[in-house]
Amino acid sequence: RRLHVAGDFANSAKIMRRALDLDPDFALAWRSLAASLGSQGADVDATDCLRKAQAVSRNVSMQERFFIRTAYFQQQDEFGRSLHVSREWSSLYPDDTQALLYSGRASLFEEDAEGARSVLNEGLRKGDRNPFMFFYASLACTALGLFDEAAEVRERGLSIHANNRLITGAGMIEAIVQGQYDQALSELDRKSY
Questions:
Q1: For residues 71 and 83, is the Cβ–Cβ distance under 8 A?
Q2: Digit-coded pLDDT (tens) for 6-52
Q3: Sign (positive/negative) of CA torsion 17, 18, 19, 20?
Q4: pTM for the full model?
Q5: CB-based burial label for 138 (10 Å; 0-12, 13-18, 19+)
Q6: pLDDT tens for residues 41-94?
Q7: What is the DSSP string of 117-133?
Q8: Contact call for residues 159 and 143 (beta carbons, < 8 A)
């Protein structure tokens, strides 16, 4: 997970494959492999991994089942269904910030930026340090035109995850939204995306 969150998707996938060689019924390893493959553009393989995760999830906790189901629906671009499952997940496990992250992401894709902002800010208030939480919280603020708040969210995220490409990418998106194309291109060149 640390490798995936750091953007090292290939090595994350390699470790998950090793874990699955040892235990092919390791549902969360299938889910993690799906995330790393999906981040590399291998969507068909990611979907297959999420199907395998669901198939072997009989022995995992209820929270882990919610995690896998939510990830599956998001992989399938079924954000309404994902939102429904992630809201149920967060209502049963209110301290699980992963449920808030998935609810916020689904809300953004369902074009509810205010709902996304609210849920993602709750996750940040609860101490979540996942760079994806900062990324989506910044995007929600940008979608609402709250550019100062978006910048503040990114600054907090970058104070924890210095030079994180995901978080700085949210800044590039904001620059494009504001029509600051030179700034976005300059950042793109500087980060060598």
A1: no
A2: 778 899 999 999 999 999 999 999 999 999 999 899 999 999 999 99
A3: positive
A4: 0.87
A5: buried
A6: 999 999 999 999 999 998 899 999 999 999 999 999 999 999 999 999 999 999
A7: HHHHHHHHHTT---HHH
A8: no
CB count, 10 Å around CB of 33? Answer: 28
Residue showing tokens 């499952």: 85
Q: How far apart are CA 182 and CA 48, in angstroms?
A: 40
- How many Cα atoms occupy the beta-carbon half-sphere of 187 within 13 Å? 19
Residue 108 CB contacts under 8 Å (≥ 6 apart), including other chains: 116, 136, 139, 140, 143
Roughly what angle, to the nearest 10 degrees, separates helices 165-177 and 131-143?
Answer: 10
What six digits make up the tokens of 124?
């940040």
Looking from the CA of 28 toward its CB, the CA atoms found within 13 Å total 10
From CA 161, how far away is CA 156, in angstroms rounded? 9
